[in-house]
Amino acid sequence: MQNETLSKLKVPAIGLIITGIINFLWGILSVVTNIYLFVTKQSHFANPLQNSAEQLGVIIGIAITVLSLAVSPIIIYGAIQMMKGNKYGLAKTSAILAIVPVTSCCFLAGIPLGIWALVVLNQPDVEMIFKGESNNRNLEPPLPPQNW
């Protein structure tokens, strides 16, 4: 019974791991690109206010990407723990973080995978696995009759 319950978690957890890895790699590429553009780019605007707005946009882009990079390991680690049936709160957190667009550049994949993971995590048998309880009590053989 426990293996069946853990198998429910496997596919959404693997999806979250892949989403976290892609998010991390995309974040590194984005930070490097934005820093390069910030340092080397010549502004096309004559107005200094427009130049400042353009620089501010690049800085905000870098900040959001750094936030996304910081969240990626949490998504990955939480998904790994989800697959093992450990750390229920972290597993739910990783699913929620994959859904939020600001924390994940892969939110188009993260939204359905995160929702799927949350639906599975909220099932009673799955919650019991995370709490360390199992339905194995029902699977034990009956005791022999007392008159033997």
For this entry, give a set of tags:
148 residues, mainly alpha, 5 helices, 75% helix, rod-shaped
How would you describe this structure to a colleague?
Helix 1 runs antiparallel to helix 4, helix 2 (48-84) runs antiparallel to helix 3 and helix 3 runs antiparallel to helix 4 (107-121). This protein starts with a helix and ends in a 17-residue tail after the last helix. It has 148 residues and is mainly α. The longest helix has 39 residues, at 2-40. It has five helices and no strands.
The helical percent reads over 70%
By DSSP, the count of extended strands is: 0
Low-pLDDT ranges? none
**Alpha-beta classification:** mainly alpha
Mean pLDDT: 82
| Radius of gyration, CA atoms, in whole angstroms | 23 Å
Percent strand: under 5%
Q: What is the tally of helical segments?
A: 5
Instruction: Summarize the helix and strand pattern as letters.
Output: HHHHH
